[in-house]
Design a protein that fits this description.
about 325 residues, mainly beta, five-stranded antiparallel sheet, about 0% helix
């Protein structure tokens, strides 16, 4: 478990301070984390137990777990609080009622699902295929798959959406680039080359800055304009996995191989690490609630599974 004595190397302000961890039922492993800031809820893919973990964002306590299958991706509808899950080898996308703790509807797709992203403006889930070259598009009003997008690569990682244009950005681990999917034609219209990054992994679209932030396993994070113009690079930890951007757009939380970092984001500037926390646990996914000052992590330890908030002290 984390304790206040764990090594927090502060590279500037803000800093990360660990709150007490809370036990999660069923020893397992985790994947993506998402935060519903409006409803004070935190969601995590509890992959090994094949459930969606639902956490109270005020107390850190587990509110329940929903059987969805061996899920990986998770996304929240900000309008009504519904949660969507990408159910791995079940080859489905599910809609979950997190209050009733039940699956409302399920859409079948023709491949294993990894990451997902939700577009509330078009009522769509985009789900990338684990280890293959496709993105499945699900209409969440009918909960039916409406399209399959062929990618210019065979190892997609994180996805992100520009809420203004509805463009979908898909990281491509095997070609060191980002595919841009047009929401009207539902086809790839461009590939943004990321030559300073190898093995693209985390990806966020920073809407307040109108910029794309891309990270690689080689320890480089780059900022790009929405049209794909390279802005600048910053150094981050190697083997970085998931990142989450705050609602104000000036802070990004990232995790990978037990290292959690806070990254400052500014318009037309390189990403800059401002705080780092190292843990003995293999934390690799993270969610940020910048308004409440929390970074949420999940991890499996020898004495159980845990969800924990790291407080951002400015």
């Amino acid at each position: 478990m984390f304790a206040s004595s764990c090594g927090a190397t502060l590279l500037g302000v803000p800093a990360l301070v660990a709150m007490p961890p809370h036990t999660v039922p069923i020893v397992s492993r985790f994947d993506y984390v998402a935060v519903d800031r409006a409803r004070n809820r935190v969601y995590a893919a509890h992959t090994g137990s094949e459930t969606l973990l639902v956490v109270d964002g005020a107390t850190g306590k587990t509110l329940g777990q929903v059987d969805v299958g061996p899920m990986h991706g998770v996304a929240v509808d900000p309008t009504d609080g519904s949660v969507y899950t990408g159910d791995g080898t079940n080859q489905t996308v599910s809609k979950v009622d997190p209050v009733g703790l039940r699956v409302v509807a399920t859409a079948s797709v023709p491949g294993n699902v990894d990451g997902i992203v939700y577009d509330p403006g078009l009522h769509r889930v985009y789900a990338d295929e684990d280890g293959k070259g496709r993105v499945f598009v699900v209409d969440t009003r009918s909960m039916k798959m409406i399209a399959t997008v062929q990618l210019p690569g065979n190892d997609p990682e994180s996805l992100a959406i520009d809420p203004a244009t509805h463009a979908v950005y898909q990281n491509l681990n095997d070609v060191n680039g980002v595919a841009v999917i047009d929401s009207k034609s539902l086809a790839v219209i461009k590939t943004i080359k990321t030559p300073t990054i190898s093995h693209n992994h985390p990806l966020v679209f920073d809407a307040p800055l109108n910029e794309l932030i891309v990270g690689g396993k080689n320890g480089v994070m780059a900022a790009y304009s929405a049209d794909g113009t390279h802005i600048g690079d910053g150094a981050v930890q190697p083997d970085i996995d998931q990142c989450s951007v705050g609602e104000r757009g000036d802070l990004e939380a990232c995790a990978g191989k037990g290292v959690i970092t806070l990254i400052a984001l500014e318009k037309n500037a390189s990403p800059r690490v401002v705080a780092r926390w190292t843990t003995p646990h293999n934390v690799h996914t993270v969610g940020i609630d910048e308004g409440r000052g929390n970074v949420w992590i999940v991890y499996a330890a020898t004495n159980g599974d845990f969800v924990q908030a790291l407080q951002i002290h400015r």
